[in-house]
Design goal:
Elements (H helix, E strand, L loop, with lengths): L1 E4 L1 H5 L8 H11 L6 E7 L11 H6 L9 E6 L2 H7 L5 E9 L2 H8 L3 H17 L3 E7 L12 H13 L4 E6 L6 H14 L4 E6 L3 H13 L4 E4 L20 H11 L8 H12 L1 H4 L3
Length: about 290
């Protein structure tokens, strides 16, 4: 079971700049928990996401010694990828590829066709620098723009991505529209079709429906989950009202109830990070 903690996703929609030192303190607490991966920052235009303009400075302050957690950085183009691969500390590059043309333009200012070219070029760059590419298929469960969507349409894009050599894919519900039955059916279908792919889910949800969505993914055999402590976050490029990430605590509780896996996390360190995230010293900037 892989748990990916996404403080980057939680912070990016906050308009007031969070001091670099505060980010570093929080991330260092998260590094002690034992998550598989920490989505810690991004190499994107500071004009697009000003909150994460200090990613390089944050990276230099992280205490990685003694932690088995791997670092993931989001990139939105080849230029950002060339920056990210230069850092030995980073294991994964995450690329958001939307099957909604409207959202691809809003999120990365390019077409889906151009984004697929990016994926191909970045995959080759990752291979050269011994990094792994994670492709997030955003709007994987529907979109609010009236763009085409169906399971077959999603399958077409997944097939293209796999032919480019990508072997880690996360089905992303960017605006929280997926229902449990859709999550279960989609994940089951795709995991059976692409058994060699490390397939996961990056779900957004209201607190009221979060647990049932995680249960649906677990029943479908999902073993890779993205979350953010306290469920903060959302994509500022998607819509005005952000639908937050699923609270990591809910994910952990549902996995424990399911008895499908034993998570070897330091829960004392988790509670400490959770307490820090609850303080005004951090989230007063929200």
């Amino acid at each position: 079971m892989q748990i990916i903690e996404c403080p980057r996703d939680a912070m990016q929609g906050i308009h007031t700049f969070i001091p670099t030192e505060t980010k570093i303190e929080y991330l260092n607490k998260l590094l002690q928990v034992g998550f598989d991966t920490l989505d810690f920052g991004s190499f994107v235009s500071p004009k697009a996401i000003p909150q994460l303009k200090d990613t390089k400075e944050v990276l230099s302050g992280l205490k990685l010694k003694g932690s088995n957690t791997k670092l993931l950085a989001i990139i939105a183009n080849y230029r950002g990828a060339t920056e990210a691969v230069a850092f030995e500390q980073i294991s994964y590059l995450g690329y958001p590829l939307s099957i909604s043309e409207t959202f691809q333009q809003k999120n990365t200012n390019k077409s889906i066709t151009a984004a697929l070219e990016d994926v191909s070029n970045i995959k080759a760059l990752c291979a050269q620098h011994k990094k792994q590419l994670v492709v997030y298929i955003s709007m994987a469960f529907g979109n609010p723009y009236g763009d085409p969507y169906s399971l077959d349409y999603l399958a077409q894009f997944t097939e293209i991505i796999t032919t480019l050599g990508v072997d880690i894919i996360s089905l992303s519900d960017t605006i929280g529209v997926a229902n449990p039955a859709q999550i279960k059916n989609t994940f089951s279908d795709f995991s059976n079709t692409y058994p060699a792919i490390n397939l996961g889910v990056h779900l957004h949800s209201t607190k009221e429906t979060a647990a049932e969505k995680i249960r649906a993914a677990l029943k479908a055999g999902c073993e890779r989950f993205d979350g953010a402590i306290l469920g903060y976050g959302g994509c500022p490029m998607a819509k005005d009202e952000l639908v937050g990430n699923i609270d990591t605590r809910i994910i952990l509780e549902e996995i424990e109830k399911s008895c499908v896996s034993s998570l070897k996390l330091d829960m004392a360190a988790f509670k400490e990070a959770e307490a820090f995230a609850s303080q005004d010293v951090f989230w007063k900037y929200k």
